[in-house]
Amino acid sequence: MPCPVSCGYNEGMVRAEYVIDSWQSVRQDTTAAVAEFPAGEFDYSPAAGLQTFGQIAHHILVSTHALTGMLLAGETDFTGPDFRARAGKQVAHIPGVLDQAELVRRLGESSVERAAQLGAQTPEFWAGMIKRMDGAMVTRLEMLQTIKEHELTHRQQLFTYLRMKGIVPATTRRRLARQAAGK
Prior knowledge:
By secondary structure, the protein is mainly alpha-helical. The protein has helices spanning about 15-35, 55-70, 85-90, 100-120, 125, 140-165, 170-180; strands spanning about 130, 135-140. It has a two-stranded antiparallel ribbon with strand order 1-2. It starts with 15 loop residues before the first helix and ends with a helix.
């Protein structure tokens, strides 16, 4: 579909609201996975050397909050030897270890807070170019999509761990319910 006015790079292709809403859906299912995992088994890992369920869930919270915080702070370079230190400033208030209830609470609160902050940004903000961790130049909106994809990757790890414990993830339960209802 042709762009009606100026058609700059990535202009008019994907709306920020869509990406934010989509990320919120991903986060809801991430939070559900964390809430449904057996509380006493957050140190579960299917093999030596792999992150535990609790470590992955904490990483999702911290990495997403840090990266979205850097976007909102106007950072334009997500590379360099000081990247982790700059990201760390965004999450200094988050303890290194959280129990299940606190992790669930913070996952929910963080996404609501960030969605509101991200949703308040202008089209010019989203069109701004930044250097992603791999050195690629992308728009801020494309970076938000990368952040969402990062969470999806780790959410899938959580889902695998759930299944290894005999728990069916929320996404599958919804699909099965729709099938049972004939939709």
